[in-house]
C-alpha cells in the first residue's frame, strides 16, 4: 500500500493576513509566503505594510501591502478589491487583526472600551469574512472540493475565564463559536473555516508582562510547558490548516497554548 505524504504546500494560493506588519500576523504571512502563496500584508499604516511586503518580496516571494482598518467598511472592501486586482483571486483569509490592552473588570467598564473590542474583534472579522466568502463563492470550485480557507485567530482567553477580560474574552469566545457557524454555512461554497486560540506569545502585546518578573513568573506557572510561544509556532499550525493537509478540518478551534487550558 502506497503512503501519500501530507501536502503542506500553498503554492499558487492567494492569502490575505490581517494585522500582519508584526507579531503573529507577520509570522503567518512569512510562513504562507514560504509555502508558495502570494500574500497581502495589512495594517493601519501603508508605510508599515509596504515595508513588510518589500522584505518578503526581497526573499523571492510575492507580496503586496494594503493599509486596512478592519473596523471600516470602505477599507474592508478596498482590501478585497486590491487583492483581486493584484493577484486575480482570494483563496485564504487569516483574520488576525484585533485589539489588546490593559484588562478592565466589568464593574469598571465603559462603552468606549466595550465598542473598541467588539468592533475590531467581532464586527470587523465578521464582515471581512463575508466579503472574502462572496469572492470565493464567485470563483467557484469543483463539487465536493474545499480549496478555500478562512482561519480566525482567537485566544485562550475565549476558553478560560480570566479576571478583567469580560469583553476581550467574550469576543474571543464569540470568534470560536462564530467559526463553527461559518463552517456550517460556507462548506457548500468550498470553504473551510477554523480558528486557533493562542496563549501567551512573545510579541509586542506581551512585552510589558514579560518585563515585570513577578508577572512573568505568574504567567509561566499557568502554562504547562512553562514558556511563552514564539510567533512561528502559531504560524506553523495556521499554515497546516491552510494547506491541503488540513483540508478535512472545518469548524474546529485549536488551542496553541502550551497547555494553559489544562490548568
Task: For the structure shown, list the relevant keywords.
263 residues, alpha/beta, Rossmann fold, 7-stranded parallel β-sheet, 14% strand, globular
Task: Please give a structural write-up.
- The protein is of the alpha/beta class and 263 residues long.
- It has one domain (14-255): Rossmann fold (3-Layer(aba) Sandwich).
- 44% of the residues lie in helices and 14% in strands.
- The protein contains 8 helices and 7 strands; from the N terminus they run E-H-E-H-E-H-E-H-E-H-E-H-H-H-E.
- Helix 5 links the parallel strand 5 (148-153) and strand 6.
- The radius of gyration is 18 Å and the shape is globular.
- The mean pLDDT is 94.
The structural class is alpha/beta
- Count the domains: 1
CATH level-1 class:
Alpha Beta
The number of distinct helices, counting runs of at least 4 residues, comes to 8
The CATH fourth-level homologous superfamily: NAD(P)-binding Rossmann-like Domain
CATH architecture: 3-Layer(aba) Sandwich
What is the number of beta strands? 7
Shape descriptor: globular
User: What is the chain-wise order of helices and strands?
Assistant: EHEHEHEHEHEHHHE
Mean pLDDT over the residues = 94
Q: Can you describe this structure in just a few lines?
A:
This protein is α/β, with parallel strands linked by helices and 263 residues long.
Amino acid at each position: 500500500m502506497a503512503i501519500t505524504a501530507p501536502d503542506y504546500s500553498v503554492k499558487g494560493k492567494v492569502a490575505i493576513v490581517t494585522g500582519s506588519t508584526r507579531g503573529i500576523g507577520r509570522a503567518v504571512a512569512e510562513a504562507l509566503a514560504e509555502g508558495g502563496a502570494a500574500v497581502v500584508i495589512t495594517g493601519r499604516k501603508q508605510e508599515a505594510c509596504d515595508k513588510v511586503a518589500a522584505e518578503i518580496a526581497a526573499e523571492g516571494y510575492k507580496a503586496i501591502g494594503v493599509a486596512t482598518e478592519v473596523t471600516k467598511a470602505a477599507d474592508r472592501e478596498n482590501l478585497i478589491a486590491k487583492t483581486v486586482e493584484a493577484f486575480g483571486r482570494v483563496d485564504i483569509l487569516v483574520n488576525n487583526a484585533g485589539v489588546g490592552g490593559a484588562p478592565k473588570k466589568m464593574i469598571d467598564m465603559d462603552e468606549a472600551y466595550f465598542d473598541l473590542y467588539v468592533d475590531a474583534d467581532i464586527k470587523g472579522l465578521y464582515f471581512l469574512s463575508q466579503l472574502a466568502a462572496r469572492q470565493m463563492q464567485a470563483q467557484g470550485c469543483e463539487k465536493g472540493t474545499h480549496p478555500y480557507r478562512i482561519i480566525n485567530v482567537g485566544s485562550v482567553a475565549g476558553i478560560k475565564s480570566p479576571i478583567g477580560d469580560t469583553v476581550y474574552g467574550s469576543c474571543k469566545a464569540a470568534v470560536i463559536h462564530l467559526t463553527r457557524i461559518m463552517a456550517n454555512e460556507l462548506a457548500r461554497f468550498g470553504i473551510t473555516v477554523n480558528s486557533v486560540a493562542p496563549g501567551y506569545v512573545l510579541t509586542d502585546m506581551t512585552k510589558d508582562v514579560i518585563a515585570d518578573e513577578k508577572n512573568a513568573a505568574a504567567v509561566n506557572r499557568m502554562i504547562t510547558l512553562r514558556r511563552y510561544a514564539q510567533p512561528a509556532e502559531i504560524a506553523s499550525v495556521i499554515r497546516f490548516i491552510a494547506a491541503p493537509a488540513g483540508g478535512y478540518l472545518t469548524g474546529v478551534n485549536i488551542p496553541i497554548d502550551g497547555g494553559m487550558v489544562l490548568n
